[in-house]
Amino acid sequence: MGFSRGADDQNNPAGSQAYWEADDASLQSGRWGTIQTTWSGAGKESIDLGWAVTATVDASSTAFATADFGTSGINEVRELAPRCDDIVKGSAPGCVLPYFKTEWTLDTNRYSAAGAYYWYLQQVMPDHAGSKRWDSLMHYLGPDTLVKNSVGGTWTSDNSRTRVCDSTWSVHPSDASVGSVDCDEYAMASTHESGGYPKSVNLVTSGSKCAQLLTDKMGDGSANFGLLADTRTATNGPSGTERCGRAAIPSVQNQQAFTGFPAPSWRMLDGDGFFVTLPGFEHCTSTTTTCTWVKIG
Description:
Elements: E1 2-8, E2 31-37, E3 44-46, E4 52-58, E5 64-71, E6 83-85, E7 94-96, E8 102-105, H1 112-124, E9 138-139, H2 157-164, E10 181-186, E11 211-217, E12 225-229, E13 245-250, H3 251-256, E14 273-277
Parallel strand pairs: 8-14, 11-13
Antiparallel strand pairs: 1-2, 3-6, 4-5, 6-7, 9-14, 10-13, 11-12
């Protein structure tokens, strides 16, 4: 709820329209107003703090002028519309400005295989999910989503992951030094862009429709590892038209690369947008040539 109050420089009530009479004593005077908004503290609520200032001077019934002193932005954008909630688990009720989009930077020094895989998919996926270069946001699958799974429960990232990393996926043979690998999906299962999310623009009927990739030694006699195409089914590798990806990525990287995503501290709820940046690969310019990972720092 909210209430407002207007007054002049001497704290005399100025009325809701902050109107000056012609016989006001001072030739130079000010008007100010305050508005207080109180959130109930339950659920989630957006509070519009936008403003617009206009003025009209009436000298007579036929002589008047108007002035526009600007606004805080257009109504559709609502830059100054904090959203408050008590939904985020493990956190006290609080507020954020959801108009401002966050940026998650992956530690590509620690998770170079996952980083290479994410960078490649950002470039070739039709919607370039998560890429700042393509100005394409990902959108978080939050705890307040209204989408339901087949048993009537809240749709979770596990539900999306099950569709992408389904029974059609099998481990591609790789050098023993790669170690244990998992099926890693992109876009992430915790986003609306996942190939398994029911309302995704990238929705697929099975993970077999995704680009198939793997981590392995480069095979050039060096000790280097790389991201390679899984050609067991698609003999020429990914076509660049796939709506999602799944790759055999070292288990530790698959399980930890995105675990630090600070959704609770950022108070992210369903549909909130964010970018994923990959500093060890941002220098790469083409997916048709080999690009070498660069250590940061």
